[in-house]
Specification:
With 329 residues, the chain is α/β, with parallel strands linked by helices. Helix content is 47%, strand content 11%. It is globular, with a radius of gyration of 19 Å.
Length: 329
């Protein structure tokens, strides 16, 4: 475990992820996919995309393991009561993605209860702290990467042994438009989401021959708790920084602690709906990346060019077949 006080830095908040200055379009949907028989573990289900997703996948027939940190807590009890009332197959488990032991124990318990490998891991738990890069002190920088990147790695390492043995499984990773595009003032958050994009794509090539799939969701702006949680953490960070440093970033520093979501009209259910659609697809038909929001998707040309370059670079080598499988080529 890191030696900083997460509660002080984060001011009590963690949420699902996504922010963008430019919204993008959510795909129109007809009907609902059937997730019956699927076992799905979701991280960060106390609020946001994680909480909505846990309910949604269960209503579509899945056996859901909804994980969150710091149990007992009211959000866990609320979810248990909802599951009981609606007859949903939801088990709440304690997993702090910063805690190696909790990750290992939580995944082992989910595998015990489902009788083997999980079908799906949704890597969702994440945080945001905004501000100029220079104003991101090492505690904030460390916490962002510990949660948004190392947390995903811990979870993947925990579920993959059973998935590899079963030669099946799917890991969906919630990234962000800010993992492909630069919005000044997002500090280490954007860097952490760029890292998720690279990490997940590399996993996709390495796991394709083993029957395990990887997905990357790129949300735009959505009205979840990520912004109020981010504002509290960003304001605390701003107060720790010297006036001399803040003076040279007047606009960006002023925004720390007072940011608003870029698209309050967007429906956060777009993300669970998109993930459910991907889960229901046949393994060979799933795209590596899915951009989701309500408006243009400015990262799509980047996604396309990167796929073309990767296929060209890897196509004639030993990972050529895996790259073609990942990109549907």
């Amino acid at each position: 475990m890191p030696d900083f006080d997460r509660r002080t830095i984060l001011a009590g908040g963690a949420a699902a992820t996504a922010l963008a200055a430019i919204p993008s379009t959510a795909t129109a949907r007809t009907g609902q996919p059937d997730l019956s028989g699927k076992s799905i573990l979701v991280t960060g289900t106390s609020s946001g995309f994680g909480r909505l997703g846990a309910e949604h996948y269960a209503r579509l027939g899945a056996k859901v393991f909804a994980t969150m940190r710091d149990l007992p807590r009211p959000e866990a009890e609320d979810l248990r009561l909802l599951a009981s009332k609606e007859g949903l197959d939801i088990t709440v488990l304690e997993i702090d993605v910063l805690d190696d032991a909790q990750v290992a124990d939580g995944v082992a318990e989910a595998e015990r209860l489902t009788g083997g490998a999980l079908d799906v891991l949704v890597n969702n738990a994440g945080i945001m702290i905004t501000g100029p890069v220079e104003m991101q002190d090492m505690d904030a920088f460390h916490l962002l990467f510990e949660t948004n990147v190392f947390g995903y790695q811990r979870m993947a390492r925990a579920v993959l042994p059973a998935m590899r043995k079963a030669r099946s499984g799917y890991i969906v990773n919630v990234a962000s438009q800010a993992g492909r595009l630069i919005y000044p003032g997002l500090g280490a958050y954007s860097a952490s989401k760029f890292a998720v994009e690279s990490w997940a794509e590399q996993l996709a090539y390495e796991l394709a021959p083993l029957g395990v799939g990887i997905g990357i969701i790129q949300p735009g702006g959505y009205p979840t708790k990520i912004m109020p949680n981010s504002n509290a953490a960003s304001e605390a960070l701003k107060q720790r920084e010297p006036e001399e440093r803040k003076a040279d970033y007047p606009g960006l520093a002023a925004q720390m602690g007072s940011s608003a979501t870029s698209a309050p009209q967007n429906d956060p259910m777009d993300i669970p709906n998109a993930i459910a659609e991907l889960i229901a697809m046949a393994p060979g038909e799933r795209p590596l990346r899915r951009a989701v929001a309500n408006g243009p998707s400015p990262q799509e040309p980047i996604n396309q060019v990167c796929a073309e370059v990767q296929l060209s670079m890897l196509g004639s080598g030993p990972f050529g077949p895996a790259a073609r499988k990942v990109h549907g080529a």
